[in-house]
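Handout, page 2. Input:
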Amino acid sequence: MATLLSMPEVAANATEAVLSAWVVPVGAAFAAGDPIVTIETDKAVVDVEAEADGVLLHTIAEPGASVEVGQPIAVLGGPGEVVGDLAALLAELGVATAVAGTTPTPVTGASVAPSPSATTPAGTAATPPAAPPAAAAGAGSPAASWDAHGARLFASPIARRLAREAGLELGAIRGTGPNGRIVRRDVEHAVAEAVARPAQAPTPAAPRPPAVPAPAPGTVVEVPHSRMRKAIAARLTDSKQTIPHFYVRGTADVGRLVRVRERINARSDVRVSVNDLVIKAVACAHVAEPDMNVVWTPDAVLRHSSVDIAVAIATDRGLVTPVLRSVESLSLSQISTAVRDFAERATSGRLRQDELEGGTVSVSNLGMFGTEDFAAIINPPQSAILAVGAVRREPVVRGDALEVGSTMRVTLSADHRPIDGVVAARWMRTFLALLEDPAQMLV
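Output:
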């Protein structure tokens, strides 16, 4: 029996996602657990797997289309099922038209009703309907309607509902979705404009900032925002606006740490980095100071039993922060292997959404670029992030003597809502002690 495959909510609270590619071609059979379609979220690429054996009868959304969660993207059939009349099947399933930005893909042997343009004689303009047809205007058509001029309008169900609640006509809203489809953000923008319009009083206008001169032709290249860049901007802006950051800084004499790393790499097939040792030290410090291993929520502070640490990884598409789970129980070789795997899959955009969620603290290391000291922005809903600088040869005091040693500067950014200053200070003291005497975290 044919059923609709809808865009899943692959990320928490996501309203839409991009259909990246169809893994299974139309007409092909698949087994339960096989990937059917690849979905792209703000930070991950996710394969949607089949729940049961079947066949892909028809695709509604094309690769590259941005589809709202819950909208149909394909028609699935049972094993061996074929379709005689695709148009009738779509109408029966409540899909009168394809999602905007798509082209129906007929199944071999299927009889598809011809489009109006196909039956219009050459040179004859098709006459737009005087009123919306019943099949398209009814509840079975979630995407299309017509304006007063007979032009077809496409809008998502949530956009229609919001427009109806706000008393706005869809024809007065400019769609920015695929092929001009009206989506939620378009209605919200129209509502905001409608609310602001009455408030504009004929009072003297406030002085405007000086206009930015237009750059000379050929001196500026406009780079459109990617989905990931927009997501990063929104999350970090929200973090700085809503999370009261405070900062604790420290400097560690990491001569022993560097020598321990050299000895480990001389005896192991798995190469351990300084950052791997830092991640292990963060986990040990969280175990010693459990009040740091927390997350703030509106109703309670959540104290975690395991230490899950996000690792900042730079890619061509932007920064991602996959999460290592239960780091306190991992060996250095396991940490190194996991981080390398994250880095490789992050570069190709193959991280899973669940790998990008959770954690209480992040580690951001710019030391490999020679950065001595910096402060990072907390990655919500986590409560802290550690910024790690480069290992540098500097004068250090050992006992009463001045010597040349290896030092590392670190800055902890903490959320002051669940974490008190004294807690962060105790954590920093423990963390620096682990860096200076790494044997403590290897036992």
